[in-house]
């Protein structure tokens, strides 16, 4: 662990899997996968199970409604909270924080405080990336996928992406 400042507050940043409690690590992995896939697996599994139960009980409208509600939730910001930010909240500890506390409301409150103190997206991405790279056995597949994806993209891609981000280039859409 190392001291880490966000604005005027000091936190303890976990650097690898040897610093993190196993329960917290499992939540970290879940959010990390969600950040890659964009899907909350436990919520999807629960929705699928309830929907099937409705259909098996010949309650077709309720079953269809379950899937429609899930589809709408995916499209709205309320569902798609940023999973990578949650990963960061799990590896950046407040003074005296209990690592067994992985409650989502707690993490949301913690992130609100960090954002108000100046937490940037770059810090989130860098710290989560460093944590995964420092733990190759636990995140080898994730790290390799990320490295392969970024290495296979040429300089032309990165230049165009930077231009898009700065509003200097209009996106080109392939009509294949």
Kindly describe this structure.
- With 176 residues, this protein is mainly alpha-helical.
- It has a domain at 2-38 and 80-135.
- It contains 8 helices and 3 strands.
- A hairpin with a 2-residue loop joins strand 1 and strand 2.
- The longest helix is centred in the C-terminal third of the chain and has 17 residues, at 136-152.
Gist of the model:
The chain is mainly α and 176 residues long.
Which key features would you list for this structure?
7% strand; globular; mainly alpha; 176 residues; 8 helices; 3 strands
Strand order within the widest sheet? 1-2-3
Gyration radius, to the nearest Å?
20 Å
Percent helix, as a range, is 55-70%
Structural class: mainly alpha
- Give a quick account of the main beta sheet: strands, pairing sense, barrel closure: 3 strands, antiparallel
| Count of runs of 4 or more consecutive helical residues | 8
Instruction: Output the helix-strand order.
Output: EEHHHHEHHHH
Q: What is the average of the pLDDT values?
A: 79
Number of strands: 3
Low-confidence stretches: none
This entry's quaternary arrangement is single chain
How far is it from the N-terminal to the C-terminal residue, by CA? 50 Å
How much of the sequence lies in strands comes to: 5-15%
Shape: globular
